[in-house]
Amino acid sequence: xxxxxxxxxxxxxxxxxxxxxxxxxxxxxxxxxxxxxxxxxxxxxxxxxxxxxxxxxxxxxxxxxxxxxxxxxxxxxxxxxxxxxxxxxxxxxxxxxxxxxxxxxxxxxxxxxxxxxxxxxxxxxxxxxxxxxxxxxxxxxxxxxxxxxxxxxxxxxxxxxxxxxxxxxxxxxxxxxxxxxxxxxxxxxxxxxxxxxxxxxxxxxxxxxxxxxxxxxxxxxxxxxxxxxxxxxxxxxxxxxxxxxxxxxxxxxxxxxxxxxxxxxxxxxxxxxxxxxxxxxxxxxxxxxxxxxxxxxxxxxxxxxxxxxxxxxxxxxxxxxxxxxxxxxxxxxxxxxxxxxxxxxxxxxxxxxxxxxxxx
Length: 360
What we know:
globular, 6-stranded mixed beta sheet, two-stranded antiparallel sheet, alpha/beta, Nucleotidyltransferase, domain 5, 8 strands
């Protein structure tokens, strides 16, 4: 017997949003760890907001909403608010009841500078790593480092000469530009859309694009990101950022770092060793020169282990660029892009924690 198609439009509901979330859903553990991390930042939140005036949207709600955006590949903040209006799981995670209205998308624009000035992305990443459940998963001796190219939110048409001597574009709203007989470079040209973007080519046979470079430092025990930074795209950015991140980790006992062939330079190897960091660098041997890593390093079993484990950092780069939408810059400028790259690196850690904690 078929059921009757009745439309039940009740006025009141006594259902809590969390009752709609399965008891074994991994997002419950993610929410638990997120709440502990945000609670540890409450003093910093209080310092960033004024004690007078109309109460604003809680920063904890804003940050949880940005986590949801990364977890579920929501394209924009406007679309995030649309889905937050009807998705009970999103509402529960952020901390909204069924009856509370969602915010205007411009709320993120108004509050982003406040969160940016407080460097809450790096603080949140550290807070997640310092929770009691996560501390036991981390290694403090063995690390891996890598960089990934992120295309800037700017087209090649915006890459103009700094002396303003470009030939005029063809007529029309989106007029074509003639690049023949023109050799654009970062010394003579700059993007009018995003001045922080730099023209960069990943390798031979690859086209040059306006880009940034994101850098990750991963601990080798569980493959969690312990540091994330974004810089302008230059030929030395990966080496400089890696040394800066390792410098913050060095100072105690000797540590190791696994890298790919791009870090096989005399500058990186000598600087790492000076910081008591053993560089487990993949050897880059070609017809022009030999490797800066010799048998003194490669003969140890730890070198081979580092070379195997360091490839797991590509999983983090892949997740950030596909699921979290960092393959192309969602913002302009190094400060905003760096903030979001670090924050979504923390989101990557949170996504991995349910399975890591279940495995013990």
